[in-house]
Amino acid sequence: MGRKVRDFIVINLGIAMVALGMYFFLMPNNLATGGANGLAIVINSFIPALSVGILMIIINLVLFIVAFLAIGKNFGIKTIYSSLGVSFMILILEKIIPIQKSITGELFLELIFGIIISGGGMAIVFNENASTGGTDIIAKILNKFFHINLGKAVLLADLSITVMAGFAFGPRLSMFSMLGVIINGFIIDSIIEGLNMNKQVTIISSKYEEVRKYIIEELEKSSTIYEAIGGFSDENKKVIVSIMGRREFIRLKNFINTIDQDAFVTVNNIYEVFGNGFGSFTH
Fold this sequence. Notes:
Elements: H1 2-26, H2 35-46, H3 52-71, H4 76-96, H5 107-127, H6 135-146, H7 150-169, H8 171-196, E1 198-204, H9 208-218, E2 224-229, E3 236-244, H10 246-259, E4 264-270
Antiparallel strand pairs: 1-3, 1-4, 2-3
């Protein structure tokens, strides 16, 4: 129950960030940076009677129906909730805080802020095994029927929308939208890596037993012990390997420093870990 509440809160935080980034920075500048929102911005330019929020709901509903018929239920309830959540939040913002023009008049500045905020929200949603819909559903359909790699399919779908933006708003905004798509990809990847980053620590210490006990009893982490022979000293040594979060690593480093300043420690960043107390394969 606690896990479900936590997932619900985190997904809603991501949804809010996506909606706020799009509504306050991308939409006023007609920056169609892919997804259902980008397509809605383009369509809105030809049919202004339909708001972007309404169009996003229509686009996502159509895509859900197509996805159910074409690829089944594989994209999951979280994706339906997240994509409709973004659409409804933008619709509400249009009603209570109508925006007619750019906040600062600085196109590039607002592109960067919009992409950072909305891309950060997308990363949070993706990290919860969901998505904000739109382009992702198109990408899955392209992947199934045309065997196009999912990453390439997402990029192809997003770039297609930016090309449409060129017809609606001219080449300048189309090129800014393309730039936004590219930056968005880097931001999402970087944030997801940061959210999931752990430390793989390898330790060779004369105080090996104390270190092992500290990892298990104080940090409540497991470890693997290897038998090794020193290449220079030709002595038998025990090597401890453990994976932990950044906070636990700082505590471990300070502990090792107090008991054995001659310990040999190497550290690697690990971005995905499954099983044994870490993430599940299905989450």
